[in-house]
Amino acid sequence: MSRNRFCAFIAGPLLIALIAASHPVAHAQTFSILYNFGTNSGDPAAPQSPGIVAQGRDGNLYSTAEYGAEGCGAIFEITPAGTLTDLHDFDRTDGCDSYSGLTLGTDGNFYGTASAGGAFANGDIFQVAPGGGFTAIHMFGKRGPGAGPRTAPVQGLDGNFYGTTFGTSMISKSQEETEVS
């Protein structure tokens, strides 16, 4: 066997052994249930799988649920100890059907979307403070752009929020005239 082949033959397994030895050992993870949604009257219920659970600067977890006390969805907070707080219940005027979960913004507030409800029933983008102060920051209008957002916005490096919508606003001329009068 030539010297080059011998070195390659020994170096390959040695490299693998060095990588394996330097990789930290993974510790077993513990799974525990923090809260069973819907166990108490008025609980937020049915958090959606695509929804984002965001951890706040206070260490608590924040997200949205499809159903709340008003039947239109809710924003909630859960502590690591499992205490649930309903921060906001949607009532159709400020949104409905929030599947999105929440994104933690650089300002410490959370941002999300409701896919329906709002001023024109086309959903909205909202902000919620960790203490529960809710603000609808954009209601999707009668005519484009966009309607029915289903994912939380993402904050870009420029500080702006970006996202997608499921559809476009479509209101007939007769509906528009009825809303105006």
Q: Describe it for me?
A:
- The chain has one domain.
- It contains two helices and ten strands.
- It has helices at about 5-20, 175-180, and strands spanning about 55, 60-65, 75-80, 85-90, 105, 110-115, 125-130, 135-140, 155, 160.
- The strands form three sheets. The protein has a four-stranded antiparallel β-sheet with strand order 1-2-3-4, with no helix packed on it. A four-stranded antiparallel β-sheet has the order 5-6-7-8, with no helix packed on it.
- The relative contact order is 0.12.
- The model is unreliable at about 5-10 and about 170-180 (pLDDT under 50).
Gross morphology is globular
SSE topology string: HEEEEEEEEEEH
Q: How far apart are the first and last residues' alpha carbons, in Å?
A: 93 Å
CA radius of gyration is 24 Å
Task: Count the DSSP helices.
Answer: 2
Indicate the structural class.
alpha+beta
Strand order of the largest sheet: 1-2-3-4
Q: What number of domains?
A: 1
Uncertain parts: 4-12, 170-181
Helical content band: 10-25%
**What is the number of strand segments?**
10
- Tell me the strand percentage band: 15-25%
Q: Quick one: biggest sheet?
A: 4 strands, antiparallel
The residue-averaged pLDDT reads 77
